[in-house]
Amino acid sequence: MQKRFSIWDPLIYLVLLTYFLVVVYPMVWLLYTSLKTDKAIFLNPFELPPLRHLQWANFANAWTKGNFGDYFFNSVAMTVMTVGLVVLLSSMAAYALSRFHFRGARPLFFYFLAGLMIPLQLGIVPLFFQMKDLHLLNSRWGLLTAYVAFGMPFSIFILTGFFKSLPSALYESALIDGASDFRAFWSIMLPLARPGLITVAIFSFLGTWNEFFMAFMFLSGKGSEHLRTLPLGLANLTIVSQYRSDWGMAFAGLVLVMLPTLLVYSLLQKHLSKGITMGALKG
User: Fold this and answer.
1) Which of 84, 105, 166, 196 is 20 to 30 A (C-alpha) from 73?
2) How many domains does the chain have?
């Protein structure tokens, strides 16, 4: 059946096209600006650079002079550990809260949800002094602990809805066949919650990879330069080359930060949309 034409269709497409340009053009502008010299950036900020004058050296300078090689490794290591721990611990907690009936289960679930209501800026001062008392400042483990703690409430909220939706017959059949509770969780229930796990992993990756505030608070002491992540590295670019801002190198650093995010999102976009939809329907 042919779709009936509506006078609102052109307006809808115009709004969507405008939104597309607003979202995509800044990324395109950032990409070709990273291939310019400082002079070209200031004189012709919106002009495309000539192909014969592309400044690929900006990326090399960002990687070497800006120490982006070290920052990139630190961000990858921190993100991988954070995502792994958040997914593992949150799935175990969400499974217990959704499948086992014990006194205090519901208050405990709302206790985790309370973590979503606490702004990071409100809790950073007591958290800073707590990290100081535990001698975790200027260390990778202190920042990892904070990332996992702040990432778990949202992850538990999402995964609890997924585990509640899984059929109990599968779990009971596994127990009848002689499987332990842990075996039933690890081999049967956890694979069935794959859309939720992927959704949690994506949000955890985005939050950790682009996080600046906690990294700045916990890794700003003397001797912690080798532990800094990419967002901190970007801030450090302004004092490279005798405190002279190298804008071409700075834009190249922004591209290096942005590309992994775009890659992960483009590869897992379908899983993300599916996970959010299923979580909303089943929660």
Assistant:
1) 196
2) 1
**In the block, which residue shows the tokens 């300078």?**
61
- The pLDDT value recorded for residue 179 is 78
Domain that holds residue 98: 62-282
Domain membership flag for residue 12:
no
- Cα 117–chain centre separation: 19
Q: What is the CATH number of the domain that holds 223?
A: 1.10.3720.10
Whether 1 is in a domain gets the answer no
Looking at residue 226, what DSSP letter applies? G
> Please, are residues 90 and 156 in contact by the beta-carbon 8 Å criterion?
yes
Q: Is residue 207 in a domain?
A: yes
What is the CB neighbour count within 10 angstroms for residue 54?
A: 13
Q: Is the dihedral of CA 139, 153, 204, 100 positive or negative?
A: positive
Whether residue 43 is contained in a domain is answered as no
Q: Distance between CA 112 and CA 64 in Å, rounded? A: 42
Question: Given a cut of 70, is residue 242 above it in pLDDT?
Answer: no
Structure tokens that stand for 278 in this block: 């299923």
